[in-house]
Amino acid sequence: IQWEKRVRDSAQVHRPDGFSVLVTGAAGFVGTHVSLALKKRGDGVVGIDNFNTYYDPSLKKARKSLLQGRGVFIVEGDVNDARLLAKLFDVVAFTHVMHLAAQAGVRYAMENPQSYVHSNVAGLVTLLEACKSANPQPAVVWASSSSVYGLNEKSPFSEADRTDRPASLYAATKKAGEAITHTYNHIYGLSVTGLRFFTVYGPWGRPDMAYFSFTRNILQGKPITIYRGKNQVDLARDFTYIDDIVKGCVGSLDTAGKSTGSGGKKAGPAPYRVFNLGNTSPVTVPTLVSILERHLKVKAKRNVVDMPGNGDVPFTHANISSARRELGYKPTTDLQTGLKKFVKWYLSYHGYNRGNNVN
Ligand code: NAD
Ligand code: UGA
Questions:
Q1: Is the Cβ–Cβ distance between 241 and 279 less than 8 Å?
Q2: Contact 277/148 with Cβ under 8 angstroms?
């Protein structure tokens, strides 16, 4: 009863025509920011996260405290738990599901392939089954990835480009996710929006990602490893700042409409959409490092090695004209500015400005 009340309170809407959103992966990097933004404008938000140990769970706990302080309740659980999902949909008539729970990271797929299948394929299907059977059916917005473009050589990447050459198992599970969600759309009339995020960075970010681990190592005086592509060409990423991604997510929820399907029995003309959410200006990894050095006022010990062939693509570059047109998406933060904000957060979170130089 106590649990139900907390879920219900958290889902409470505080603006006219507001949404009740179930955010999966809410204690994750993107999930935290999206949940905060929705709560701030008066939407009801309930989070679910399994707090797995892929990276430091204390960071996930800290994000959870932040969220709970703002009135967002996080249920500790797995999206593979069909009974838990059914219970949540029983307690709240969610208008939208923002599905961000996943096993992320491209290189870790070589170490633990099953974790990608568990969360990104089986977990996705379990979640979609719950959405399909809910009455009303929620509109689903979920995180795909720029990695679906794989070894695409055409630049910039447009949504209609080929996605048949994934470079990692992670990418393959995201591509599978696109096929799976599309199927639920046309069989069950579920409204689906897939967002292909391009290398997202910012405060409360992921310690497994390059900008974060480079910052840690540079501050600790440890070497960093920079991967270089074939023919000594630098790798490049269309690094995208978290606040821009959040705006794209919220814009997707706003334009997804409230699905009205009746318990999954009536297939309707609900939309299936896919959008790139990137920054449109790729930057090489050595340039990323130079910007960090400038903000940290410390020189990196650079160790440049050939790309080990473990899932990295040579470059990413988003064409965002669809998202611009249909979601009003317009990234406004360049890498210099965004990294400055990240570094400020990093130093404060790790207590550097309190004289702690060991973390
Ligand atoms: P993250 O790892 O910080 O967040 C994912 C959260 O989901 C984590 O807190 C994790 O504990 C949780 N989770 C994982 N499996 C789960 C499961 N089975 N049940 C319940 N919770 C589970 O990652 P993020 O960077 O916030 O990414 C969010 C989404 O965006 C993911 O789907 C990711 O694949 C996608 N994405 C991220 C980026 C990026 O650069 N950050 C780029 C492209 C796509
Ligand atoms: C990121 C996320 O980690 C994925 O979850 C996401 O799906 C993907 O973006 C995406 O856009 O779809 P990635 O771009 O590989 O993946 O992000 P990082 O791990 O931060 O790597 C960024 C760049 O730095 C890559 O070119 C990588 O090769 C390079 N790198 C990474 C290094 O040079 N050294 C390292 O130690 C780590």
A1: yes
A2: no
Is-contact 148 178, C-beta < 8 A?
yes
Q: Are 106 and 31 in contact (CB under 8 A)?
A: no
- Is residue 191 within 6 Å of ligand 1 at its C-beta? no
| pLDDT tens-digit readout, 27-68 | 999 999 999 999 999 999 999 999 999 999 999 999 999 999
Q: How far apart are CA 250 and CA 260, in angstroms?
A: 20
Residue 357 has a pLDDT of 54
This prediction has a pTM of 0.97
What's the pLDDT band for 356 if we cut at 50, 70, 90? low
Rounded mean pLDDT, 100-115: 97
CA-wise closest residue to 145 among 118, 125, 116: 116
Measured in whole angstroms, the distance separating CA 244 from the mean position of its chain's CA atoms is 12
CATH superfamily membership of 2-198+242-277+317-331 = NAD(P)-binding Rossmann-like Domain (3.40.50.720)
Q: Which helix (H) or strand (E) holds 64?
A: helix 57-69
What is the phi/psi pair of residue 273, to 5°?
Answer: -135, 150
Q: Which residues pair with 196 in a beta bridge?
A: 276
Concerning whether 108 is annotated as a catalytic residue, the answer is no
Which tokens belong to 311?
């899932």
Q: Is the distance from CB of 104 to CB of 169 less than 8 angstroms? A: no
The pLDDT confidence band at residue 267, using thresholds 50, 70 and 90, is: very low
121 lines ligand 1 (CB under 6 A): no
Query: Cis bond leading into 269, ω under 30°?
Result: no
CA gap 181, 141 in Å, rounded: 10
Asked whether 317 and 280 are in contact (CB, 8 A), the reply is yes
The DSSP letter of residue 234 is B
Residue 270 Cβ < 6 Å to ligand 2: no
User: Mean of the per-residue pLDDT values for the chain?
Assistant: 95
Give the residue among 113, 270, 158, 121 at the shortest CA–CA distance from 129.
Answer: 121
Catalytic-role residue among 108, 170, 184, 201: 170
CB 197 within 8 A of CB 240: yes
